[in-house]
Design a protein that fits this description.
This protein is α/β, with parallel strands linked by helices and about 525 residues long. The protein contains 24 helices and twelve strands.
Length: about 525
Amino acid sequence: MTDLSEIAQNANAWPFAEARSLMKRLGGKTPEKGYALFETGYGPSGLPHIGTFGEVARTTMVRHAFSLLTDMPSKLFAFSDDMDGLRKVPDNIPNREMVTEHLGKPLTAIPDPFGTHESFGHHNNARLQAFLDDFAFDYEFQSATECYRDGRFDAVLLKVLERYEAVTNVILPTLGPERRATYSPFLPVCEKTGRVLQAPVVERNTDAGTIVYEDEDGSKVEVPVTGGHCKLQWKADWAMRWVALDVDYDMSGKDLIDSVRLSGQICRVLGAQPPVGFTYELFLDDNGEKISKSRGNGLAVEEWLRYAPPESLSLFMYQKPKAAKRLYFDVIPRNVDDYLSHLGSFPNQDAAKQLANPAWHIHQGHPPHEDAHLSYNVLLNLASVCHTEDKAVLWHFISRYRPDATPETAPILDRLVAYAVNYYRDFVKPAKTYRAANDAEKAALEDLAGVLEGLPGDADAGAIQTEVYEVGKRHPFPDLKAWFRALYEILLGQSQGPRMGSFIALYGIDETIQLIRRAAAGKDLST
């Protein structure tokens, strides 16, 4: 073991705690399959979304922590439940009428409404893999259809048939009387229609490995439970997959707590140990309501990535995964600046603190370093006061403030400038509301302009901030917060803003004096 791995044994970050739980389950021994298996599940009736990203990102963080604690090989399976029967046609696809004709069929047996792949399931699986590849996740894709049809699940399916009553008895207490009367863990795939049927099972033949079900026309049909002729109901299916693939770690949302419990019971009925689990909280919208794909009240990955780097989204997923968090546009700037703060502090931390730094987990132990650094909020306010959506204009000010920084030498900063322009255009600009200064505020602004005139042109942000404080103290504001709020509302058209010393140093002392004098004279600053 390396020195770092020894330090990691006592690391408090939640991915390390999870990794140690997995090591305890494995008893320090590599499983017979030759690796520890992490799994994330995906229902491909819809396109990948921000929850998909969160689950894979968090699992990857645990896996990386695990790799530091032990030399044991590991894999991550991204599993697609693409043999599930489609129950509802999604609203956001073309050719919905065509897809409606195939309701009930496995997703991999439904023609692709987009016309690009051999089936709807294959199309969405390709989208999932492209989505994960865009973030450079290390994973192996697994298809339920392929696992059912190529026999990979056969041995465990026969065990489900053998222990049919015990498996069924786990689920029956959770069902209503009507559903309980017809429940079977096996869903036969009809040879005539290709649909996945919720049909009563009237006979079981363990020796032959078959079931007999009652078809919709009343006829009795015998089918093998193996080879893709049957699929399992959701909770039994999850348990069967854990056993067949020998899954060691699988996390899921709070809404699946009961499913995890029941699938764990079925897993034990089948003679296996459930994987280590981790339950994460769900996301809320800006009103504190649960995010729903069907309601469309959430924030999509593509929307986040229009305004901020993917690493900031990874930070959002890393922080307090067991706490419900609001996921809406206003959280983006804070997460970007928090990410930059963690990134900036990393090189000067000792090894123990680095392992507790989210940047270590986001970048799998190797965070990038860049000397040129400006906060996202300062960039937003620079765009705001310049009234510009042009990166070149912002770089004009940045280069004067940091002569060593260029788009080529500071790629992280350059990306932030582009994101800031987008965020300013879509959110800041439409919401800007300037107010006029009252007489007391005009006097304070004139005082500030005079003080700034007395500063050297190369005064640093700290010196400028001190002078801004002193001006506020000399005037009859209730407190300094009121003084800074007045500066933000009068000069920037918003109720909150940046550290004024940093902003003035970036924007320029002369330019700030002109801005203040215009505001004090009652000029319109919105143009």
